């Protein structure tokens, strides 16, 4: 039985998030106190480097190294930014941490500021998270009153103040350069690096951007030490990862497991497997930027490198489980629909490419795709990956490429046989009456909105395929399992 | 709120708070209700109100209610964790309708388990 290990989510569900005392009672702000009174900024950075903590926002950049870059530059003002712009479909771990344990994020930001010689903090949070915002505001106020934030923290010379900035909920604003643009009041569009934010970020001052989950790990690392942390996890990926498992899974929820736990352990031991006796088909990790993994990958230990090697990625930790009733072409179309909406439009490959990919996928799901379209889809995807400006565009074709690679037969069934094997794509389905089972109860004919079912009472009914709009009402209504879709 | 002026101050405060917490744990029933966005949406606040009401109706006074964040069991929301004095905490899920009252009448009053217990399998970092 796989066991969870809760580091980033250690306090969520255990303490009152609206009480600073509740946080202090579990050792809160002691990591900050330890840094301020017993460690030099360089020691803090060294400790973070040794711990091996990598960014949990998705890209996995080593946190200590990032802090080290920002520490090198001289500046009167340096910023610590918390990226709380969580926008992956199926991911909600940052919200859980912010709502359940806001002080741990504030404490970690103060530690980061001390380490890089900074003094200002900003939490960039999407406006769709009102409860998280309310609890953060409350936490900031209480922490200042308590003297663990603000001026002369815990009687030292160190001052650190922070504010909230609200995002309008744009997926691209998770990308740090787009996030900084948005914070400055500009359109949330990314820009080319260098200069990296560590040199010139928010208002051209050295800036570090860390994700919520990354930050939540930091007080624990300071208190328990780098050795403790890097003994957890795998060779390249240390510590734990929080995942949100959703979709076709019995125990939908939030979990935190050591890196290196296998997908099988996550889906079956912790997630309780697939409900309704259905077969597991695939799991999408890394959200719209990731890819689909199949039964072949179930034994793979989850870490940054292993997922990339299997052409998916860690991402922020959303895991969408799919069963035999999910059509992989439709899944790819769903993600492309999302990225097509979320592209900022600055670069052509992403703006126009996403639309073109979506159109091709749509064509395939309505049964008008050709084999040539599959080739087009593949080459277009590869080109976009190579030419897009930022992470959003560079990873946008991943769901298409990975589903095409692993479920090629499903794509071919759509374009050649004009069939959707999973029975999802409405235009490719056919509802038919099983003669042996039909008792002629007439219920299907009564419920059909286009009157395309004919037959006398007590006789076998017939569906007029040309007139059928594939709504499925007849199938739902039939009490004798006499209607099948295929 | 008295200001904290040093690490020693903070540690002293933490110790005091911890001692108070231990005292409460020994004497009272602690009820932690998950109140994150999703828990609230699935009825967490109603569950808390119903349990409070039932405690009052039953004349049970030694219960401390606390709001906490996400308890991570989305599939079983709303959820509540109850710690009887000197016992291990037990988490109950699917606490809808009369279930809240039942928890007070059976588990809080006499330690009798009711359906919906969620088995937990995690270690948690404490310091």
TrEMBL record, chain A:
InterPro entries linked: 4Fe4S_Fe-S-bd, 4Fe4S_Fe_S_CS, NADH-UbQ_OxRdtase_51kDa_CS, Nuo51_FMN-bd, Nuo51_FMN-bd_sf, Nuop51_4Fe4S-bd, Nuop51_4Fe4S-bd_sf, Soluble_ligand-bd
Keyword Coiled coil assigned: no
Transmembrane segments: none
Keyword vocabulary terms for this entry: 4Fe-4S, Iron, Iron-sulfur, Metal-binding
All copies of domain 4Fe-4S ferredoxin-type, residue ranges: 430-458, 459-486
MF (Gene Ontology): 4 iron, 4 sulfur cluster binding; FMN binding; metal ion binding; NADH dehydrogenase (ubiquinone) activity
Signal peptide stretch: none
This protein's record includes keyword Ion transport: no
SMART domains hit by this protein: NADH_4Fe-4S
Name this polypeptide is given: Cytoplasmic [FeFe]-hydrogenase-associated NADPH oxidoreductase, major subunit
Species of provenance: Syntrophotalea carbinolica (strain DSM 2380 / NBRC 103641 / GraBd1)
Gene, per the UniProt record: hndC-3
UniProtKB/TrEMBL annotation, chain B:
Protein name as annotated: Cytoplasmic [FeFe]-hydrogenase-associated NADPH oxidoreductase, thioredoxin-like subunit
Gene3D superfamilies in the cross-refs: Glutaredoxin
């Amino acid at each position: 039985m796989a066991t969870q290990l809760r580091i980033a989510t250690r306090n969520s569900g255990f303490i009152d998030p609206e009480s600073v005392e509740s946080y202090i009672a579990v050792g809160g702000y002691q990591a900050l106190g330890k840094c301020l009174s017993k460690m030099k900024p360089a020691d803090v950075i060294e400790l973070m480097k040794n711990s091996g903590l990598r960014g949990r926002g998705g890209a996995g950049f080593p946190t200590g190294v990032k802090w080290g870059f920002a520490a090198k530059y001289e500046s009167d003002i340096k910023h610590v930014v918390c990226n709380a712009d969580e926008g992956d479909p199926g991911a909600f771990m940052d919200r859980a941490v912010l709502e359940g344990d806001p002080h741990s994020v504030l404490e970690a930001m103060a530690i980061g500021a001390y380490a890089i010689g900074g003094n200002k903090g900003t939490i960039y949070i999407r406006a769709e998270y009102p409860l998280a915002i309310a609890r953060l505001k409350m936490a900031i106020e209480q922490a200042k009153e308590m003297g663990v934030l603000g001026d002369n923290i815990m009687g030292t010379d160190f001052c650190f103040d922070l504010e909230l900035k609200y995002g309008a909920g744009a997926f691209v604003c998770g990308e740090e350069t787009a996030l900084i643009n948005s914070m400055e009041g500009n359109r949330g569009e990314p820009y080319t690096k260098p200069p990296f934010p560590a040199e010139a970020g928010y208002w051209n001052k050295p800036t570090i951007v860390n994700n919520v989950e990354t930050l939540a790990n930091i007080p624990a690392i300071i208190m328990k030490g780098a050795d403790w942390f890097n003994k957890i996890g795998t060779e390249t990926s240390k510590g734990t990862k929080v995942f949100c498992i959703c979709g076709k899974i019995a125990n939908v929820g939030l979990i935190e497991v050591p890196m290196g736990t296998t997908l099988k352990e996550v889906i079956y031991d912790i997630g309780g497997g697939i409900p309704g006796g259905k077969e597991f088909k695939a799991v999408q990790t890394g959200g719209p930027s990731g890819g689909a993994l199949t039964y072949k990958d179930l034994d793979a230990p989850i870490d940054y490198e292993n997922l990339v090697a299997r052409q998916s990625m860690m991402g922020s930790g959303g895991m969408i489980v799919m069963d035999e009733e999910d059509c992989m072409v439709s899944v790819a179309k769903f993600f492309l629909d999302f990225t097509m909406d979320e592209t900022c439009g600055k670069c052509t490959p992403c703006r126009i490419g996403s639309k073109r990919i979506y159109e091709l996928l749509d064509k395939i799901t309505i049964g008008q795709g050709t084999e040539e379209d599959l080739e087009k889809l593949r080459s277009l995807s590869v080109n976009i990956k190579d030419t897009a400006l930022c992470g959003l565009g560079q990873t946008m074709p991943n769901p298409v490429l990975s589903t095409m690679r692993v479920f090629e037969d499903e794509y071919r069934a759509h374009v050649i046989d004009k069939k959707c094997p999973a029975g999802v794509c409405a235009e490719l389905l056919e509802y038919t009456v099983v003669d042996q089972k039909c008792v002629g109860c007439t219920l299907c004919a009564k419920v059909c909105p286009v009157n395309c079912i004919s037959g006398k009472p007590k006789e076998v009914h017939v569906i007029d395929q040309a007139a059928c709009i594939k709504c499925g009402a007849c199938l739902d209504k039939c009490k004798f399992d006499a209607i099948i879709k295929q | 709120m008295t200001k904290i002026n040093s690490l020693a101050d903070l540690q002293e405060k933490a110790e005091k708070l911890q001692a108070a917490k231990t005292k409460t744990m020994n004497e009272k029933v602690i009820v932690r209700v998950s109140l994150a966005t999703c828990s609230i949406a699935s009825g967490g606040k109603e569950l808390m109100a119903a349990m409070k009401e039932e405690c009052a109706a039953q004349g049970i006074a030694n219960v401390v209610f606390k709001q906490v964040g996400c308890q991570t069991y989305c599939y079983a929301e709303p959820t509540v964790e109850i710690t009887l004095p000197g016992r291990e905490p037990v988490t109950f899920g699917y606490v809808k309708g009369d279930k809240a009252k039942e928890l007070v009448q059976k588990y809080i009053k006499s330690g009798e388990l009711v359906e919906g217990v969620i088995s937990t399998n995690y270690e948690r970092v404490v310091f």
